[in-house]
Design a protein that fits this description.
Blueprint: E1 15-18, E2 31-36, H1 46-59, E3 65-67, H2 80-91, E4 97-99, H3 112-123, E5 137-139, E6 142-150, E7 153-157, H4 168-186, E8 192-196, H5 206-219
Parallel strand pairs: 2-3, 3-4, 7-8
Antiparallel strand pairs: 1-2, 5-6, 6-7
Helix pairs in contact: 1-2, 2-3, 4-5
């Protein structure tokens, strides 16, 4: 995935606010969270990434942060040290951090299997390092997929990066089943849902997005 500055958090911190929605659970509450991606995109950006974490701790009103993938550029060599460094920097946040996979640190690597082992070892269950983290559910067959409810809003993370390392259909089916199950199970108690993933709709991912559109329509509440 090419670097996209619109996905990055810089000084000042970009936050997404879900305003109160009338006539629904926890309708009097607002929830603020941070989302970022494509960072750090090179060795030179590692100090900037840590500065963003420090600035977030000082100034952000967000309740948690989600990184949507690409912790390195696609042209960089994949080395375990980058995964460890980014995980430790995310753990320096004062609020819980979550991450979903990007293609640059997995499917674009010369050895995707090793890259995935490094990703899993450093990022799965990362919320357990934070005090006050929400009660997080993880999909039994795909533990990188997560879900939790906060202030009447369902938050779901799925493994849907750009690229293909094989067994794509099964992964897309697992993602669809996870989102469908969460929307159905949590539907009566939530007022909106937010789904995090790196890649957007494309013909290669219709297997997921066709089911996602049906599930979102049946949910009949706001979905981001």
């Amino acid at each position: 995935m090419a670097g996209n500055p619109h996905l990055r958090i810089f000084a000042g911190v970009v936050c997404i606010l879900l305003g109160a929605l009338s006539g629904s659970p926890a309708s009097s509450q607002s929830i603020t969270f941070s989302a970022m991606g494509d960072m750090p995109y090179s060795e030179d950006e590692i100090p900037e990434f840590q500065d963003q974490m420090d600035q977030h701790n000082l100034y952000s009103p967000s309740e948690f942060l989600v990184h949507v993938g690409d912790i390195k550029s696609g042209s960089e060599t994949c080395a375990e040290a980058r995964y460890v460094t980014v995980a430790n920097m995310l753990k320096s946040l004062a609020v819980p951090a979550f991450i979903v996979p990007g293609d640059n640190e997995w499917t674009d690597c010369s050895d995707p299997d090793s890259a995935w082992a490094w990703w899993e070892g450093n990022f799965v269950d990362m919320e357990q390092f934070f005090c006050g983290a929400p009660a997080v559910e993880r999909q039994s067959v795909r533990r990188e997929n997560f879900a939790f409810v906060q202030s009447g809003v369902l938050f779901v993370g799925i493994n849907i990066p750009n690229g293909d390392v094989g067994n794509e259909d099964q992964r897309l089916d697992d993602n669809a089943e996870w989102v469908e199950m969460q929307l159905v199970d949590k539907g009566p108690q939530i007022r909106a849902a937010v789904v995090f993933g790196q890649a957007g709709p494309s013909s290669s991912r219709d297997r997921f997005f066709d089911r996602f559109r049906v599930a979102a329509a049946g949910f009949a509440k706001p979905v981001l």
